[in-house]
Structures are given as C-alpha cells and as structure tokens.
Amino acid sequence: MSTRTVRNSEKLNYLITGASGQLGSYLAEYLVGQGHKVYGMDILMPNSDTLMSGFQRVDFRDVDAIESCMNVILETMGTVDCIVNLVATRPIGNFQSTAKYSFATWSEVLQVNLSSIFLICKSAYHHLTQSNNASIINFSSIYGIRGHKNHLYGPDAYHKLTGQEFNTPVSYSVTKSAIVALTRHLAIEWAESGIRVNALAPGGIEKDQSDAFISRYVQLTPMGRMGKPSDLVSAVEFLSNRGSNYITGVTLPIDGGWSL
Predict the structure, then answer these.
(1) What is the pLDDT of residue 254?
(2) Sign of torsion over alpha carbons 154, 160, 166, 172
(3) How does 123-134 read in b/e, with b if 16+ C-beta sit within 10 Å?
(4) pLDDT in tens, 161-184
(5) Which of 164, 174, 228, 256 could cross-link with 221 by S-S, CB 3.0 to 4.6 Å?
C-alpha cells in the first residue's frame, strides 16, 4: 500500500476577527511570519507592526456595519481559506453579579460574542466554498465546556495595570457555551460544502492578573501555569491546514489540563 505525505506548507488567506486584541494581534503576527496572508477586523486599529494584508474597522454591535465590512473585506481578499473568530467584548457592567447584571450589558455581550460570529460565518459561506481548504476556527473557552469556579475570584482578583476586579460573568459562560453549539451545528451542515468548522477552548491566559489570582488558578492546572498566546497559535495553524482535513466539529481544550 502506498503512502502519501501531507504537506502543511500551503500558504493560506486568513480572516481574523478581534485582530487587534492580545490574542488576535499575536496570532496575526505569527501567521504573517509563516508566510500566510492575514486580513483583520476589529473595533480598534491594529498595531502598525502586524503587517496584515488588509484591515477593516467595525463595530461588532452594529449588524449593518458587520455586513458592510464583510462585503468590503471579502472582495479585497478574493479567496478565503480560514476564518478565526476571536472577537469578544467586556463592556461597562460586565463583571456584575447575575442578580445585578443589566439586560443592556447582556444584550451587548450576546451580540458581539455570538451573533456577530454567526453573521461573519454566514456572510463568508460562499467565499469559503471557493477554497480548496476551507475552515472556520471559533474561540470558545474552558468556561464554554466546564462550569466556572467562583472561588477563583474576589477582591484580590484584579488586573495590576488598572486595578479592576474581574470574575466570570454569566454572559461570558453562556456565549462561550453557545459557540461550541454553533461550531457543532455548522460543522454538520457545511461539511457537504467542504467547510470544516472547529473550536478552541483556551484556559486562562496570563496578562497582568494579580498574584493571588494566578496562584489559585495554577493550583487547578496540572501543568502548573496559566496559558500564553504562544500556546494557541500552533493549534490554529494545525486546524486550518490539510493535516487536519478529517477533523471537524471538535472543541479542543488548550488549558494545561485544567478541564480534566
């Protein structure tokens, strides 16, 4: 029986939503460095050093703006091989307890974290069908596949740079769980069109959190540390290249064993 080597050196056209954030900008820079073309969308302008091939500024709360932006960027890209959906928001009031959580904040988070991703995938469908290696990678979270841990938070869980306390709000858990369901649904429905759809469920990424929070977090993690952006990029590249061409509908935890 003959064997065939799968080549993973193919250069792809990526669209990254949330491309100006911590993970989005890191991923864009990495993919550009690997020789891929990267196009971005976000509400904030990216770092000028990212060297993306194109970028559109868009308010993900605005349905009409999303559709208009997608038309422009898809026309610019021509062929779309992979969409990486990283977009998420933390509006004012986001870290309130559920009993105090406003419906306006709830609605805004659902629109950005979930509905905008649905619209982006839907808008790109026909362009993706023109690719010989089409895929979508949605970012969920460990809190999309496991329950949140209340005891991780409290007055000593805050960001060092801003002093802002943080926790896991109800809207985050709900939207990240819904991303798993959306991924599974699209994977089944769009398989016959040659589009693979997978999700990543990262654990906590270290970024200026208080020492007390980090200490509690790593005690729950077999590998003994929080995640880094560099822990995620290889998974994105793998799920978008031909080495994973029989993988769809999967939500892959990247969490150092936290969710075990």
Answers:
(1) 98
(2) negative
(3) bbeebbeebebb
(4) 999 999 999 999 999 999 999 999
(5) 256
CB 140 within 8 A of CB 200: yes
Structure-block tokens of residue 1: 């029986």
d(CA 250, CA 61): 28
Task: Give me the domains of the chain, ranges plus CATH numbers.
Answer: 13-147+168-207+228-254 (3.40.50.720)
237-259 residues labelled b (16+ CB within 10 A) or e (exposed): bebbbeebeeebbebbbbbbebe
- Residue pair 226/206 in contact (Cβ under 8 Å)? The answer is yes
- 128 in Cβ contact with 192 (< 8 Å): no
- Nearest-CA neighbor of 149 among 221, 254, 227, 232? 221
